[in-house]
């Protein structure tokens, strides 16, 4: 694995004044990406919701809707 320095080399970076300053109107150098700093991700499941929690949510929703429907029918009659 090679190491990439995040700091630019001042003598090879265009647009820098002596001492490392940036003149007005000049964009400073961007940071380099350092891919070796993050851990390698080996497990990232791509599946959506599991079947059991989704089934429980649907059943609870249907039971609540049935309760309010029955309550409305009792109030009407």
Q: Major beta sheet, specifics? A: none
> Using only CA atoms, what is the Rg?
31 Å
Order of helices and strands: H
Q: Percent range for helical residues?
A: 25-40%
Keywords: Membrane, Transmembrane, Transmembrane helix
Pfam families: DUF6480
Region (Disordered): 1-47
Transmembrane segments: 54-76
Descriptive notes:
This protein is mainly α and 77 residues long. The protein has a domain of 31 residues. It holds the Pfam family DUF6480. Keywords: Membrane, Transmembrane, Transmembrane helix. InterPro entries: DUF6480.
How do you describe this structure in short?
With 77 residues, this protein is mostly helical. 34% of the residues lie in helices and 0% in strands.
Question: What attributes characterize this protein structure?
Answer:
1 helix; mainly alpha; 77 residues
Strand-helix topology:
Layout: H1 51-76
């Amino acid at each position: 694995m090679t190491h990439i320095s995040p700091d630019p080399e001042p003598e090879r970076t265009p647009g820098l004044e002596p001492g490392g300053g940036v003149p007005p109107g000049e964009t400073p150098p961007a940071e380099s990406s350092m891919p070796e700093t993050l851990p390698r991700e080996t497990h990232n499941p791509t599946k959506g919701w599991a079947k059991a929690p989704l089934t429980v949510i649907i059943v609870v929703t249907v039971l609540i809707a049935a309760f309010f429907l029955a309550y409305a029918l009792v109030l009407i009659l």
